[in-house]
Design a protein that fits this description.
Blueprint (H helix, E strand, L loop, with lengths): L12 H25 L4 E3 L5 E3 H17 L5 E3 L7 H4 L4 E9 L1 H6 L5 E8 L2 E9 L4 E6 L4 E4 L4 E4 L12 E6 L4 H5 L8 E6 L2 H9 L5 E4 L5 H13 L3 E4 L18 E4 L6 H4 L4
Parallel strand pairs: 3-4, 10-11
Antiparallel strand pairs: 1-2, 4-5, 5-6, 6-7, 7-8, 8-9, 12-14, 13-14
């Protein structure tokens, strides 16, 4: 979708959603080709987190496509220099992207990585698109239009799992492959019974909750707003939510720093999550 628009700030969400979907798939295919060939360079950022030439290629593909089609909409990306809040605070709409969420998983060849594109409007995610290249699966949502999963096998509307008994059903916890299970379980109430689902990418864990395959995910550690923008829209449209560990909403483009606090992704909203998750 390479049509240029004179005033993309007023462009309908359904058109911008199609642009984001097409762009995520295009970038994801390029990343998958690199992944399968194993031909990439790896670097270390100032914060000691990894980045690869595949991240940079995906970033270039996404930025070029979005800038061509929507030149009036600013872009914030993990792999670009972030403008000051003084400049960003005037953004009514902007694209928020993570070219590869799960770079460590890309390097480790677990297959748990994804391309994330979100549209933020008035400081809230209104479009979320996540493409999982190894799974050839597209997760997407837009405000008040529901959340969807699309692959060669299915195209369906997603909803969080509705527990038979929100007060005592067994809860499925999505857990990072690289985070000790005990660290997460120590934060969960001993009054409930749990099963665990190991996954890599933060956004994929959120999508699995939106798809009813898990019920909760706790993220402790440094993340950026680009890690949650797309999945927050998807999870909310599927009937769940994302909150910080004090159960306050996450913020977007309202602070100089663009890092997130620790947060939880929640499924069935009838579950008394605040009594189950004991962060402190």
């Amino acid at each position: 979708m390479n049509v240029q628009h004179d005033n993309a700030q007023n462009q309908p969400l359904e058109e911008l959603l199609e642009l984001a979907k097409n762009t995520a798939v295009e970038a994801g295919k390029a990343v998958l080709d690199i992944y399968e060939k194993g031909e990439y360079d790896s670097y270390e950022k100032d914060d000691e987190s990894p980045v690869t030439s595949a991240d940079y290629l995906a970033n270039d593909i996404i930025v070029n496509a979005l800038q061509t089609a929507t030149p009036d909409i600013p872009i914030m990306s993990e792999e670009r220099e972030i403008e000051s809040l003084e400049e960003r605070k005037h953004w009514h709409r902007y694209w928020l992207i993570d070219p590869i969420d799960g770079t460590q998983e890309f390097i480790a060849r677990s297959g748990d990585f994804a391309v994330n594109i979100a549209l933020i409007e008035n400081n809230k995610p209104v479009i979320g698109v996540i493409f999982w290249p190894p799974g050839q699966t597209l997760f997407y949502a837009s405000k008040d239009q529901g959340a969807f999963k699309e692959s060669a096998q299915e195209h369906k509307r997603m909803e969080v799992r509705q527990l038979d008994s929100p007060l005592d059903s067994v809860l499925m916890i999505a857990i990072s492959r690289r985070q000790p299970r005990e660290k997460i379980m120590s934060r969960m109430s001993s009054e409930r019974t749990y099963q665990t689902l190991p996954l890599g990418s933060c956004s994929l864990k959120a999508c699995f909750i939106a798809d009813g395959q898990a019920d909760v995910f706790m993220r402790m550690g440094v993340t950026g707003e680009w890690d949650t923008g797309a999945c927050q829209c998807i999870v909310r449209e599927a009937g769940g939510d994302i909150r910080d560990v004090n159960f306050d909403p996450l913020s977007y483009n309202q602070r100089e720093e663009t890092t997130n606090p620790d947060f939880v992704v929640l499924g069935d909203q009838r579950v008394p999550w605040e009594s189950i998750i004991q962060y402190y």
